[in-house]
């Protein structure tokens, strides 16, 4: 009852805010842009935080927990890497996520691509998000200053640290800096290598080149004992995905994160030129779910724990993915559209 009520309030408030913002943008002939609504929404969530006990606090029922490489996830639901706002991440953990993964961090501070670069879209009758943010973020220096005493460690749940890079050295240097910052901290964490990162200098991603992944893991594994999740793109061919699986299997303490946004051209999604600054971007949400299942099945042939990411929002999605071989379930778009899916699913395990 409480879940349904707050879910309704959340969805209605979100709808009103986005419609008002679009109305304003239309009135003043500005391009349609979802980001102001996200900022206002995050601000409102921050200000209703005084009601956090009643609005956001949900116990994770016993029986949901899972242990992977000594990381103790109280629930297998994971907040996928896409957000860094501490208040919002805190809210999702309160609702019952077993872990969150910070938004991918790059070496230097980045402003990301020009706006508009985030839209809500309808693909095949299903709601989703379409983004080409271009990995905006504070850069590794500021991130390492903040990570040491981050409020989220208080949950004692595994925290994922998503690393991006323009080349292998960037990934390695970023990890080393974080290791230094977290030295002697008694906290649970794992790394996630966002090798689908489409921002490398030569335009190719490590995800497209299994040999590069092997070199990167050989480098990183010399220093790092913490588990490493390898986040692979659904846009890669199944043949290359299999080769990536073989590389991952040759190292210990690896998790495969099967799934990310799907690359689409903006015209395919019916977006006007003025409403999206880049030619294409990443589609997310329920519409990409089938490919997530396909990837999980492909990786289930390897002896590596699998996190499934892409299009998850209900217990039925989880059941299909669990039967296909996944143990952890990453969510992004569903947390934006209705985060109350988290306590709802936790109760249905
Ligand atoms: C606005 C936005 C920003 C994202 N930023 C990142 C990121 O920084 N790093 C990353 O690995 N994935 C990023 N993602 C991808 C998500 O983590 C997730 O893999 C993808 O959205 C598919 O899951 P979903 O269908 O549950 O949204 C982003 C997704 C969205 C919608």
How would you sum up this structure, described in words?
The protein has 349 residues and is of the alpha/beta class. It has one domain: Aldolase class I (TIM Barrel, Alpha-Beta Barrel). Helices cover 39% and strands 18% of the residues. It has helices spanning 2-27, 35-47, 52-56, 86-95, 140-147, 168-182, 210-221, 238-249, 289-299, 315-324, 333-337, 341-348; strands at residues 66-68, 71-73, 77-79, 99-101, 118-123, 126-131, 159-163, 189-194, 228-232, 254-258, 262-265, 280-285, 306-309, 328-331. The chain has an eight-stranded parallel beta barrel, surrounded by five helices. The chain has a four-stranded antiparallel β-sheet with strand order 5-6-12-11, with no helix packed on it. Strands 1-2 form a two-stranded antiparallel ribbon. Helix 6 (168-182) links the parallel strand 7 (159-163) and strand 8. The longest helix has 26 residues, at 2-27. The two termini are 18 Å apart. Flavin mononucleotide (FMN) is lined by residues 80-82, 103-104, 118, 129, 131, 133, 135, 162, 194, 231, 259-261, 284-285, 288, 309-312, 331-334. The site of flavin mononucleotide (FMN) has 27 residues, from strand 6, strand 12 and helix 11.
């Amino acid at each position: 009852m409480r879940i349904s009520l707050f879910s309704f309030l959340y969805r209605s408030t979100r709808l009103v805010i986005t419609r008002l913002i679009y109305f304003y943008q239309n009135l003043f002939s500005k391009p349609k842009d979802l980001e102001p609504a996200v900022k206002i929404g995050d601000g409102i969530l921050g200000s209703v935080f005084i009601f956090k006990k009643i609005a956001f606090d949900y116990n994770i029922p016993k029986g949901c927990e899972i242990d992977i490489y000594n990381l103790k996830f109280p629930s297998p639901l994971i907040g996928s890497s896409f957000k860094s706002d501490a208040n919002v991440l805190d809210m999702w953990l309160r609702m019952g996520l077993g872990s969150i993964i910070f938004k991918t961090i790059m070496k230097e501070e980045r402003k990301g691509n020009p706006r508009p670069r985030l839209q809500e879209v309808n693909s095949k009758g299903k709601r989703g998000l379409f983004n080409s943010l271009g990995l905006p973020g504070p850069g590794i220096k500021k991130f390492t200053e903040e990570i040491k005493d981050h409020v989220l460690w208080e949950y004692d749940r595994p925290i994922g640290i998503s690393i991006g890079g323009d080349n292998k050295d960037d990934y390695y240097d970023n990890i080393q800096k974080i290791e230094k910052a977290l030295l002697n901290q008694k906290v649970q964490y794992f790394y996630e290598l966002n090798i689908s990162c489409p921002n490398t200098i030569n335009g190719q991603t490590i995800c497209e080149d299994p040999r590069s992944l092997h070199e990167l893991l050989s480098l990183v594994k010399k220093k790092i004992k913490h588990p490493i999740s390898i986040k692979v793109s659904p846009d890669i061919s199944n043949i290359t995905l299999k080769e990536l699986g073989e590389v991952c299997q040759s190292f210990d303490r690896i998790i495969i994160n099967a799934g990310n946004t799907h690359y689409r051209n903006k015209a395919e999604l019916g977006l006007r030129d003025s409403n999206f600054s880049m030619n294409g971007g990443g589609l997310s949400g329920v519409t990409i779910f089938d490919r997530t299942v396909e990837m999980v099945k492909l990786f289930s042939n390897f002896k590596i724990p699998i996190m499934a990411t892409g299009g998850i929002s209900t217990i039925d999605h989880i059941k299909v993915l669990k039967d296909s071989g996944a143990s952890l379930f990453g969510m992004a778009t569903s947390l934006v559209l209705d985060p109350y899916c988290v306590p709802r699913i936790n109760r249905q395990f």
